[in-house]
Amino acid sequence: MRTLNLKFEDALEVSKAISNKHRMSILRLLSERPHNVNELSERLDLPFSTTAVNVKKLEDVGLITTELLPGRGTQKVNTKKYDQIVIDIGPQDTKKDERVVIYDMPVGEYVDCYVEPSCGLVSVEDYIGMHDDPRSFYERDRINAELIFFKAGFIEYRFPNRLPYGSKPEQLEFSTEICSEAPLYKTDWPSDITVWVNGVEIGTWTSPSDFGGERGFLTPDWWLTNHTQYGLLKNWKISEDGFFLDGVKITSEKNINDLDIRDKPFISFKIGVKTDAVNKGGLNLFGSKFGNYEQGIVMKLRYDDKEQS
């Protein structure tokens, strides 16, 4: 039996997610076997849009997973992750949980870039500047971008360094929604996407697709479904044990101490596709109002607040 053990302070979002009869019914159905959203919609006698929103909420809190499987084309199939949930309501060390800095960076607030067409920036209402014109990336309205795409190059963000003086950084995480960039969209379109933090290369992930054809949960109605719609939420973690991508160790040859976080006024996050990448399939970067995840680029910095000798 697969059990999800939650600390008291982590249980609120999961409790909110399951305090809904439709979501509980979805979990029951997924206990039988995996289903896609159409199947769940039919069995629950609910509109597709209502079912999709409820599936998304369960996915966001980690109770189910969604994967792309071949079938009649490519379809998204939902699977239950746990058989039971256990919440620890005993005394907690709240001080430890306060030692974290969280910052959600809007995707339009980058500080540097170099991009090659096809490229563009999109707000919730329209394109920003001209499509396929790198000059548009320097327009003042770029801060309103909710979707950024380019074939090759990079885009860099600088997060404020809020590490308290005298503290030691223990773990740094970044998460963002991304996918490949193809003309319109293409499910079989790999792209090698690389991340750097404070100038140190963290690792490369090969995105399998440029996802389209089915509207993202947050994607504006005016944006045509034959264009990119959503991506995958990826997580990079840097600790004293090495570098990780979605919980899988990439390398242990370098660690968080190589980032010199205490010596810099900002924390740089750069993401892009190298000119010599094997799979030069571009990059789509989604903001909080495009795609499937209501966030920009989220940074989490955990630290030890004791002075280190």
Automatic annotation (TrEMBL):
All copies of domain HTH arsR-type, residue ranges: 13-94
A Pfam family it matches: HTH_20
InterPro entries recorded: ArsR-like_HTH, HTH_ArsR_DNA-bd_dom, WH-like_DNA-bd_sf, WH_DNA-bd_sf
SMART domains, sorted: HTH_ARSR
Alphabetical list of CDD domains matching this protein: HTH_ARSR
Coiled-coil blocks: none
A GO molecular function held by the record: DNA binding
Keywords, ordered alphabetically: DNA-binding
Name this protein carries in UniProt: Transcriptional regulator
Lineage, opening ranks: Bacteria, Bacillati, Bacillota, Bacilli, Bacillales
